[in-house]
Amino acid sequence: MQRSMAYERHLNLEATELRLGLPGSDEAPEKTSTTPSARSNKRASPEISEESRSKGSSSLSSEVENCEGETAPPAKEQIVGWPPIRSYRKNCLQPRKNDRVDGAGMYVKVSVDGAPYLRKIDLKVYKSYPELLEALEDMFKLTIGEYSEKEGYNGSDFAPTYEDKDGDWMLVGDVPWDMFISTCKRLRIMRGSSEARGFGC
Amino acid sequence: MITNKKPRSSDTDSNYMRDDRTEMSEEDDRSPPSDSIANGSCLTRTCTPGSGSGSGSGSSSIPEYAAPYPDRVLENVLENVLWFLTSRKDRNAASLVCRSWYRVEAMTRSDLFIGNCYAVSPERATSRFTRVRSVTLKGKPRFADFNLMPPNWGAHFAPWVSATAKAYPWLEKIHLKRMSVTDDDLDLLAESFSGFKELVLVCCDGFGTSGLAAVASKCRQLKVLDLIESEVSDDEVDWIMCFPDTETCLESLIFDCVECLVDFDALERLVVRSPSLKKLRLNRFVSIGQLYRLMVRAPQLTHLGTGSFSPSEDVAQGELELDYVSAFAACKSLVCLSGFREIVPDCLPAIYPVCANLTSLNFSYANISAEQLKPIISNCHKLQTFWVLDSICDEGLQAVATTCKELRELRVFPFDAREDIEGPVSEVGLQAISEGCRKLQSILYFCQRMTNAAVIAMSKNCPDLVVFRLCIMGRHRPDHVTGKPMDEGFGAIVMNCKKLTRLAVSGLLTDTAFAYIGKYGKIVRTLSVAFAGDSDMGLKYVLEGCPRLQKLEIRDSPFGDTALLSGLHHYYNMRFLWMSACRLSHQGCQQIAQALPHLVVEVIKHEDVVHMDDYADTLYMYRSLAGRRHDVPQFVSIL
Known about the structure:
The complex is a heterodimer of chains A (201) and B (639).
Chain A: H1 2-15, H2 46-54, H3 57-68, H4 87-92, E1 107-112, E2 119-122, H5 129-140, E3 146-148, E4 152-154, E5 158-163, E6 169-171, H6 177-183, E7 186-191, H7 193-200
Parallel strand pairs in A: 1-7
Antiparallel strand pairs in A: 1-2, 3-4, 5-6, 5-7
Chain B: H1 62-66, H2 70-82, H3 88-95, H4 99-108, E1 111-114, H5 122-128, E2 134-138, H6 158-167, E3 173-177, H7 183-192, E4 198-202, E5 207-208, H8 209-218, E6 224-228, E7 232-233, E8 252-254, H9 264-272, E9 279-282, H10 288-297, E10 303-306, H11 318-321, H12 324-330, E11 336-338, H13 352-355, E12 360-363, H14 370-377, E13 385-389, H15 393-403, E14 409-413, H16 427-436, E15 442-447, H17 452-461, E16 467-472, H18 487-496, E17 502-504, H19 511-520, E18 526-530, H20 536-545, E19 551-555, H21 561-565, E20 576-580, H22 586-595, E21 599-604, E22 618-623, E23 636-638
Parallel strand pairs in B: 1-2, 2-3, 3-4, 4-6, 5-7, 6-8, 8-9, 9-10, 10-11, 11-12, 12-13, 13-14, 14-15, 15-16, 16-17, 17-18, 18-19, 19-20
Antiparallel strand pairs in B: 20-22, 21-22, 21-23
């Protein structure tokens, strides 16, 4: 598959070019060798076909040149109805809006012992524990204290904890930030010396 | 060379020898089908064919019997016998024996199957068959599922529902596939059939929850409401609430494709008052906690679609602490499990108690890994049908092959349906399945790479294969080990699998593959071709070699007019032919239309395709007694 890899690398270069137009829109249609020459495109999706029609003839000829040397380069353009999967199924398998790992933010509930209602924060906004803790302190007007591996959070009555995907309650700060982000389901800031101390022993 | 226009056995009213349809049976009896024939009381039935005296019903038949015509006795006997004949093929054959048999068969057919809704008009069908209890209709061709057909092409249920409403007021069952159904149609259905029992809509669209509400509220005898892969619009009517408050007859309620919220409390109450409910498939808006509540109400279920199988966002701890394992354990009759639409893999172990009994498991919406699958599948010894996502990888398929020795049907769907990525399943998985699941009858396998060797292995290891559908997603992909076309693999399939009736091919294929199909695929009925072949010879091999071919769908392949013309001898024997983005011209299609007057030849224009005048982008043609249809949209021309 060297040829296809080479072709893909080639495509990537083009894709990073700054220009007007949809990404991937000037790849030549794949099967110019097998379709009647009368056809200008190959059932490409509407946006792409419009793009290729609007381009000047010079770019079209260069596309043809590219194509001639290749035997079956995988084209990146969307072919209608291929692979033959019903759109219902395709749509179902897209990540949903409430999915954890997409670009739209990762909101988790935060409760504080004694507070009348919960808040929600977007974990993706923060890059590290100190940032997160500072934000929590700010939001709830409390002091959390310093993290130490041995003693948990010293210096205050509050200890930040989180529920992980196994349903266990963990102390915030023990695992690397990225792991925390992917396993944290909700936050709870525990209060009260005896409970908070429980983590330290 | 057209040798024979007479059609072979088929599932539509295709009796071309009897062109004179004006002769209606004088026994145009509109009474409901009689149930009381079992006692052999043919002499006293109310539905004896009228002997022209007009006193056909009700009265004692002794006066009639005293002076019967010999063929009347024969017809009575025949009628009794034919009630028991259920197979369509047999009935079609019986109807060809003579006029008498034709009449009696028409009177005794209770299940009407129309494989192409445009092959016959509703009026014609309802006038021939007078005592139908169940109607099955199929509309659009399969490639319409993949957006290859513009919307509003046709296949409207409306003319059928109004014809059957008049002809069969006692109708009990309607089964539709790929039809356009409107809310008005559903309302008319609900109003017209007082004893209506079963509605099954597969891959249909055009209706919404208000249509469902009409059915739910008015069909008091409803046993089955199955919505399968259909598009249902959200009219903001809670149709679940429209079922009557009393105990229902519901046995099957399938709505996993309905993309709108239902009122859960109403659903729970409905389940409680439906003691006969055996099949329940929930949509993805039902959380796992809600599922639990329904399962404890309905432990008698045999088929369960689990909905999202994840906790709802808002409910707190409670949902996670419910004892799902015992809820599943209580469902001792559960044999078919599906759903898992938004699965949280941690919840999977809950289904362990039912694994050993499962005959059908659908994980095709569950993005699970091989590791997550193994503990489940290792208990599924009785599994016969398994649908899954390729997220389980070849390793997961190997686990399936190790345990599921009874597997008859396997479908492996792609999680990521793009063309040029490194796929998680390959020839390794296929090979493993072929070695472990020797009783395999049907396979649908999506992959990125494949080898001839694995396909050949499957052809030898799985001799019972009836359906072989391999989709190598990259177009024109050769055997990735040898670099050769996939001809030998598919050739081996048609050669070695003597029971094969359905085949879908993919990958790099030359005309040789089609030569194999034509030579060995003598009982192939359905063939799907995409991006394959070199020349007209490919299609010719198939059209000349496969006498049983009924449904042929081809896209993006270099077959032209010459190839099309080589099938003239066969087209009346087929349900349909679809060819899109091939090399057909209007002229070529015109020649076919002129040669075969009972064929409807549709040429469909697509907006996004620029073409020269004579080029025919999409050809869809089918035999028909009804002639050109009257509901043709402007983008279709009928030649």
